Amino acid sequence: MNAASRRVLLLLLAAAGAYVGVWAYFATGSWYRSFPGFGLHWLPVLGPYNEHLSKDVGALYMALAVLSLGAARRPDNGQVVALTVLTWLVFSVPHFVYHMQHLDMYNGRDQVLNVISLGAFVLAGAALLLPARGGPDPRVSGTAGRGGGGRLGR
């Protein structure tokens, strides 16, 4: 995957993180009642409103957005991109698995949209883990001038 493609995916992740995060943190009641928006209401079926939990979710997503924006500034830096992607995946994979086990709470349309929307985060992460086109950048991997055998931090 080239740097431009990485940047686009990272910016999409940042936008999604900002969308959920700002809404959940600064308008918790609205977010709970009407997430994900567009006339859909996915949260009330999951249990009662909890302001603390809503603010925590918002803060988490805003943090992921900031991390993604930082990585998007340096999409050629494999270490920064990998750390960002792994952070998203540590959140997104268990989040996806949980919701796949609880799809029965939703009607058919909302089930499909849950699978697509949550699966997109996992797929974006997997795509961003693909090696950079043209192989690793020795300036990033710490192997420049060492015949490819150097370790990070040396």
Structural class, please? mainly alpha
Number of distinct helices: 6
Specify the biggest β-sheet: 2 strands, antiparallel
- Overall pLDDT confidence: 88
- Written as H for each helix and E for each strand, in order along the chain, the element string is HHEEHHHH
- Rg is 18 Å
Care to count the β-strands?
2
Principal-axes geometry comes out as globular
Beta-strand fraction estimate: under 5%
Helix content: 55-70%
- How do the strands line up in the largest sheet? 1-2
Low-confidence stretches: 138-154
Q: What is the CA-CA span between the terminal residues?
A: 28 Å
Structure description:
- With 154 residues, the protein is an all-alpha fold.
- It has six helices and two strands, in the order ααββαααα.
- It has helices at 3-26, 28-34, 51-73, 78-100, 108-128, 138-141; strands at residues 36-37, 40-41.
- α1 packs across α2 (28-34), α1 packs antiparallel against α3 and α3 packs antiparallel against α4 (78-100).
- The longest helix is centred in the first third of the chain and has 24 residues, at 3-26.
- The protein is globular.
- The protein starts with a helix and ends in a 13-residue tail after the last helix.
- 22% of the residues are buried.
Describe the structure in brief:
By secondary structure, this protein is mainly alpha-helical.
